[in-house]
Amino acid sequence: MKIFRIAAKCSERHACGQLEVLRAMVRYRRRESRFAQANERLRARLRELAEERRRWGYRRLQILLEREGWTVNSKRVYRIYVEEKLMVRKRKCRRRLGAQARVLLAPPTRKNETWSMDFLQDALATGRKVRALAIEDAYSREMLAIEVDTSLPALRVVRVLERLRVERGLPARIVIDNGTEFTSKSLNKWANQNAVTLHFIAPGRPMENGYIESFNGKFREECLNEHWFLTLDDARETIESWRLDYNQVRPHSALGYRTPEEFATGYANVECKKRSPHSHSLDGCCGLDLQLNSNSRTLTCPD
To answer: Which CATH architecture group holds 114-250?
Structure first.
């Protein structure tokens, strides 16, 4: 309407007459519903119930609301249910563990808070398939381990995690997909014994595990596609050498073009209450003047 009025250089009344549009429709402004506050309370409670009952649809959730004293019809519950994207996916096959969280995780704020794991596949010169298990610290972007073998079952995954537990401790949570190795009883038992939360991404949504997916692209482009592995030992040696180079030499754009090791040992340990996660700009770190010590390859904060 505004564009037509400018082009025709006419009034709103004349423009509405030409376009056969009611002036009341053009001037309509949406007003806040008198049920806005009640809807917000209902929205919050519906999310809480959906988190507790992950496999329940909106009809059963409405029954719970009515038992709690809410006076609300099914259409209102369904509208909020869809807006909050709480729909339950139908399972095509039986899974021991489903996607446990309907809410995306917040970005990590410290080391050893969130790890990410995923598998990649490649082949030797003989054509034999090899698999690689990559484990990354989502905050410092350090590659903690890349386990390479022809087969990596769930018990092997647990063994790698046990090794990392001894070397550097365990995270609060591990973000993984719904692969058979990750949904196994062995990994679930290990996680319960060590108080580690396994956060399963939604099926078909690898972007929910974006940290490790970003690494997978770099790993395949810079290592797997650049080398021709003759034997399994050759693959293990080459990939481990590349992992060390990735942590110690390769600058990471998300870390202000520092290496993950520099960020983990220096910048990430600078105490600053106003610093937000991954705020890697030196100007945004509460006025601290950070300097890179070329000898120790760490960041220091001068007095």
So the answer is: 2-Layer Sandwich (3.30)
Please tell me the distance from the alpha carbon of residue 65 to that of residue 74, in angstroms, as a whole number.
Answer: 11
160-168 long-range Cβ contacts below 8 angstroms, 24+ apart:
160/133, 160/135, 161/135, 161/190, 162/190, 164/135, 165/194, 168/112, 168/144
**DSSP character for 125?**
T
Q: How far is CA 271 from the centre of its chain?
A: 25
pLDDT value at residue 89 = 65
Strands 143-149 and 173-176: unpaired
How crowded is residue 153: how many other Cβ atoms within 10 Å of its Cβ? 13
pLDDT for residue 287 is more than 70: no
Average pLDDT over residues 106-120: 90
Question: Is residue 168 within 8 Å of 144, Cβ to Cβ?
Answer: yes
pTM, two decimal places: 0.56
Quick: pLDDT tens for 42-75: 999 999 988 887 778 888 888 889 889 988 889 9
Could you tell me which of 267, 273, 277 has the C-alpha nearest to residue 301?
267
Total Cβ atoms within 10 A of residue 297? 15
User: Shortest CA distance to 116 belongs to which of 187, 173, 181?
Assistant: 173
Looking at every residue in the chain, the average pLDDT score rounds to 81
Signed CA dihedral, 200, 223, 145, 262: sign only = negative
Domain ranges of the chain: 36-83, 114-250, 267-300
Is the pLDDT at 274 greater than 50, yes or no? no
Rounded Cα distance, 208 and 206, in Å: 5
